[in-house]
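Weekly sync, protein design subgroup
Attendees: M.S., D.O., the rotation student, P.L. (late)

Item 1: inverse folding check
M.S. brought a backbone from last month's batch and wanted to see whether the design step gives back something sensible before we order anything. D.O. pointed out we never logged the input encoding, so this time it goes straight into the notes. Structure tokens as presented (422 positions):
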């Protein structure tokens, strides 16, 4: 009989797993996530933000299980609609848990910040995630559980429909649970990041949302898809608004963004060929610890790497000179080009951009008390009020900050634009 293990988690209390999953958790790619911070160098602004991708991966597996258990309760309408046998239900449940656990194993050090330094033919960290799942580090372990898992299906669930499209409606449903607009990956990182940063804007009633998830036949395709009972609408809106405000307050924080830039500048000089290696055994060596060791090693030198290292460990980051928000990105691009031509490497230009939400019409449905599914974009009075998030910023080295600020003001005066103070 399989043994059950448990770990205590600050968000979900206890997370349970069995022998087969324990072997996956103990694999080198998953254990490496303990040394990858979830929010890069955000701890320089939010001292508690030192949590890792490892705990987020466990949390995502836990929430995926709660969502699955809810929609496949015995004799529930959703379960009947899926038409799974009990062995199929157990197999899909295991597949979902493993895909959720492994969804982040491809992250580079400090998570998203240095993704531009991945190998040239790897556009996203998900390319490494797929490579690890198919590698000898993980694939042999997929055959050691109660049910043998198909590696293609594990990859599909881990990467999601956007990165790994599937035509099997059952696999598509599992992908939606993990990586959909209301998926558990998003639920866990929001509540976890809110806890560790202290940013209350990231909190929402995810318990209510999980309890009101259901499955319907899509009105157009007829496929079984995830939907929300009417009582969960406000919880769904809460998730979307929590994400919106976390981007504005935490992920787009001006100091966090410039630290990301300095970190990438340093890593570009520290990596051979200015990119992470494609070989998996070598890539495993690159963790936050490796980066910190390189920073400390370089901090005693007087060359460019030494300057960047001291900038990172001495809080000597470039300071914000100007910030533009809203949608005035054309004028900002002209300003940035002008200022960059004048000051070159003494400044950094940063644009932070994210859609307020990416829900497309006829994708998410709310089931009313009458049993009729309605498009959430038609039912919600709030979602469509959100506007695209965009921030354009210019940073400068401290000793030239005043000079750069004057140049920005002169440009604004010449073009007749409106300056937005920091």
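Designed sequence read out in the meeting:
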């Amino acid at each position: 009989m399989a043994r059950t293990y448990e770990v205590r988690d600050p968000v979900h209390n206890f997370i349970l797993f069995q022998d087969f999953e324990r072997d996956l958790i103990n694999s080198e790619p998953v254990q490496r996530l303990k040394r990858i911070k979830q929010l890069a160098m955000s701890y320089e602004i939010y001292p508690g933000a030192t949590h890792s991708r490892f705990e987020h991966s466990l949390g995502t597996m836990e929430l995926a299980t709660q969502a699955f258990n809810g929609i496949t309760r015995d004799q529930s309408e959703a379960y009947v609609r899926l038409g799974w046998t009990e062995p199929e239900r157990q197999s899909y449940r295991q597949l979902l848990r493993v895909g959720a656990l492994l969804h982040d194993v491809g992250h580079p050090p400090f998570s998203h910040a240095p993704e531009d330094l991945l190998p040239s033919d790897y556009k996203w960290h998900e390319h490494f995630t797929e490579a690890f799942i198919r590698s000898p580090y993980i694939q042999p372990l997929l055959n050691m559980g109660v049910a043998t898992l198909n590696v293609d299906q594990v990859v599909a669930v881990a990467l999601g429909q956007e990165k790994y499209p599937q035509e099997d409606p059952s696999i598509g449903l599992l992908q939606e649970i993990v990586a959909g607009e209301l998926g558990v990956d998003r639920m866990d990182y929001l509540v976890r990041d809110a806890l560790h940063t202290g940013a209350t804007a990231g909190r929402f009633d995810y318990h209510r949302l999980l309890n009101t998830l259901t499955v319907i036949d899509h009105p157009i395709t007829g496929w079984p898809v995830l939907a929300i009972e009417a009582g969960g609408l406000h919880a769904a809106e809460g998730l979307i608004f929590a994400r919106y405000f976390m981007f504005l307050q935490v992920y787009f924080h001006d100091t966090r963004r410039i630290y990301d830039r300095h970190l990438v500048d340093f890593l570009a000089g520290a990596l051979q060929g200015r990119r992470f290696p494609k070989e998996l055994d070598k890539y495993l060596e690159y963790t936050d610890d490796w980066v910190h060791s390189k920073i400390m090693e370089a901090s005693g030198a007087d060359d460019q790497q030494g300057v960047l290292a001291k900038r990172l460990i001495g809080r000597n980051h470039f300071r914000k000179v100007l910030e533009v928000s809203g949608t005035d990105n054309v004028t900002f691009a002209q300003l940035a080009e002008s200022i960059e031509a004048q000051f070159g490497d003494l400044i950094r230009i940063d644009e932070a951009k994210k859609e307020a939400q990416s829900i497309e019409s006829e994708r998410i449905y709310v089931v009313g008390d009458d049993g009729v599914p309605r498009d959430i974009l038609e039912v919600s009075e709030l979602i469509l009020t959100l506007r695209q998030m965009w921030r354009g910023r210019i940073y400068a080295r401290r000793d030239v900050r005043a000079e750069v600020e004057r140049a920005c003001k002169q440009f604004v005066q010449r073009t007749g634009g409106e300056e937005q103070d920091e």
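Discussion: The chain has a mean pLDDT of 93. The CA atoms of residues 209 and 235 lie 5 Å apart.
Action: P.L. to compare against the previous round before Friday.
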